[in-house]
């Protein structure tokens, strides 16, 4: 079996010194031994202590240096008495320098509470030392000693604090950058998913209506042995194929590059509620041979849309596609009617298909499509159900309500599609 390395935080990992710390401790020990051999001391021993104790403090300080990164607080606990012993036995410069590094490492690598306390305590120790030395030794050299104490305690502690703050700030900035990058990637993936769903809905709405008419009339041409009927069916097939191909080319050009394909200068063609009459008329022509009749009941207020000409709302004239900005609710209502008529052409039993659109003044826009229900057992056509999914997604994006399914009515069983879309002001505020 392969030996595992000690896990982070385990006793073996904590006691194992860093390679750089080993070099620092070894270099400090060698320098101290060289200075002691040459007799380079800061002064004579005090309190009658033997001079060889300087080597003990030097060795202890070197051991503290080994722990400066893995156990900084333990290193500081060893370094403080080692420094006191060194000052009482002659003071080696190597021991003092290593002590400053231990304080620096305790602030930089120690816990956050220690990083806050050690710099403050270093200032307090320097102030207390200055007061005590001034009281016990009234000599101008006290200033030099106090400066030396400050260099040993305050300078490394505050240097470690500054570097730690910069390191923490850099780490926080890196984490923020990673979070921002992650959020940006999530937004990008979500935007791609939404765009794919929108493109799927638009492609389905553009193609399904024309292909359904082509399939219906192609079936009729095969089933009826009548040259006139065949020519009429071929004419409808050609008309729907040309219209579908034109819409597909336009959409593909917009998806590729609107500016390079020359579509940027032309306003985008956006279906609107003004085109419902033409949409119903086209369905009426496509479903004439299937025994289907189509009626448009437009119960919206006539303000701003011109007076009624007396021929009924289904005969009100309007462009099939409105240019310029169209309300999201109007576009969704148009697509729902378009998909419902396509489904009626494919699945409805002979009878009347009624499209009703209504809107209270400043209120919700409601769309209702009733078609004769035909319970036809057998395999479903490929792609069946995708239109209902697209309609439900459109309404959900606008915060409206949608329902579709069979329902018993006075005239028999019908397939009812109903959608309620919020007012334009509510949609724009989302």
What does the average pLDDT come to?
Answer: 78
In DSSP terms (H or I, runs of 4 or more residues), the helix count works out at 12
Which second-level CATH architecture of the largest domain applies?
Answer: 2-Layer Sandwich
- CATH level 3 topology of the largest domain: Heat Shock Protein 90
Number of strands: 7
Shape: rod-shaped
Would you give an account of this structure?
The protein is α+β, with helices and mostly antiparallel strands. The chain has 12 helices and 7 strands. Strands 2-4-5-7-6 form a 5-stranded mixed β-sheet. The chain has a two-stranded antiparallel ribbon with strand order 1-3. Helix 6 (112-136) runs antiparallel to helix 7 (142-223). The longest helix is centred in the middle third of the chain and has 82 residues, at 142-223. The radius of gyration is 43 Å and the shape is rod-shaped. It starts with 10 loop residues before the first helix and ends with a helix. Mean pLDDT is 78; it is low at 1-13, 263-268, 304-325 and 378-383.
Notable characteristics:
430 residues; alpha+beta; 7 strands; disordered N terminus; Heat Shock Protein 90; single chain; 11% strand; two-stranded antiparallel ribbon; rod-shaped; five-stranded mixed beta sheet
Write the layout of secondary structure elements.
Layout (H helix, E strand, L loop, with lengths): L10 H5 L3 H20 L14 H14 L5 H17 L4 H17 L2 H25 L5 H82 L3 H30 L12 E3 L4 H11 L5 E7 L22 E3 L4 H20 L3 E9 L5 E8 L13 H13 L2 E9 L2 E10 L2 H5 L2
Parallel strand pairs: 2-4
Antiparallel strand pairs: 1-3, 4-5, 5-7, 6-7
Helix pairs in contact: 2-3, 2-5, 3-4, 3-5, 4-5, 5-6, 5-7, 6-7, 7-8, 7-10, 7-11, 9-10, 10-11
């Amino acid at each position: 079996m392969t030996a595992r390395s000690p896990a982070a935080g385990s006793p073996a990992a904590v006691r194992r010194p860093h390679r750089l710390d080993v070099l620092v401790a070894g270099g400090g020990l060698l320098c101290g031994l060289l200075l002691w051999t040459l007799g380079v001391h800061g002064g004579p021993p005090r309190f009658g202590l033997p001079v060889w104790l300087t080597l003990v403090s030097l060795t202890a300080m070197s051991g503290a240096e080994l722990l400066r990164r893995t156990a900084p607080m333990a290193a500081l606990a060893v370094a403080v008495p080692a420094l006191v012993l060194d000052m009482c036995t002659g003071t080696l410069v190597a021991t003092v320098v290593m002590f400053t590094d231990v304080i620096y490492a305790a602030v930089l690598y120690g816990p956050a509470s220690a990083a806050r306390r050690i710099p403050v305590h270093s200032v307090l120790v320097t102030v207390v030392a200055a007061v005590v030395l001034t009281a016990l030794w009234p000599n101008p050299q006290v200033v030099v000693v106090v400066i030396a104490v400050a260099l040993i305690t305050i300078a490394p502690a505050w240097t470690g604090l500054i570097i730690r703050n910069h390191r923490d700030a850099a780490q926080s900035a890196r984490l923020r950058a990673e979070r921002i990058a992650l959020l940006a990637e999530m937004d990008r993936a979500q935007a791609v998913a939404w765009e794919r769903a929108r493109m799927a809905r638009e492609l389905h709405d553009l193609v399904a209506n024309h292909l359904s008419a082509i399939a219906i009339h192609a079936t009729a041409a095969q089933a009826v042995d009548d040259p006139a009927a065949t020519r009429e069916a071929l004419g409808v097939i050609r008309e729907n194929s040309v219209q579908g191909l034109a819409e597909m080319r336009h959409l593909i050009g917009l998806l590729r590059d609107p500016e390079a394909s020359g579509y940027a200068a032309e306003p985008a063609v956006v279906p609107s509620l003004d085109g419902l009459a033409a949409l119903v008329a086209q369905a009426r022509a496509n479903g004439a041979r299937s025994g289907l009749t189509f009626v448009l009941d437009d119960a919206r207020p006539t303000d701003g849309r011109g007076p009624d000409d007396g021929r009924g709302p289904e005969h009100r004239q309007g462009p099939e596609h409105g240019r310029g900005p169209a309300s999201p609710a109007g576009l969704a209502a148009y697509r729902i009617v378009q998909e419902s008529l396509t489904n009626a052409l494919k699945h409805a039993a002979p009878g009347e298909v009624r499209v009703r659109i209504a809107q209270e003044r400043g209120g919700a826009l409601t769309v209702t499509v009733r078609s004769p229900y035909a319970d036809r057992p057998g395999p479903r056509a490929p792609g069946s159900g995708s239109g209902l999914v697209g309609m439900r997604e459109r309404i959900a994006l606008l915060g409206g309500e949608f329902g579709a399914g069979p329902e018993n009515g006075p005239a028999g069983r019908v397939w009812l599609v109903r959608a309620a879309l919020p007012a334009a002001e509510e949609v724009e505020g989302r």
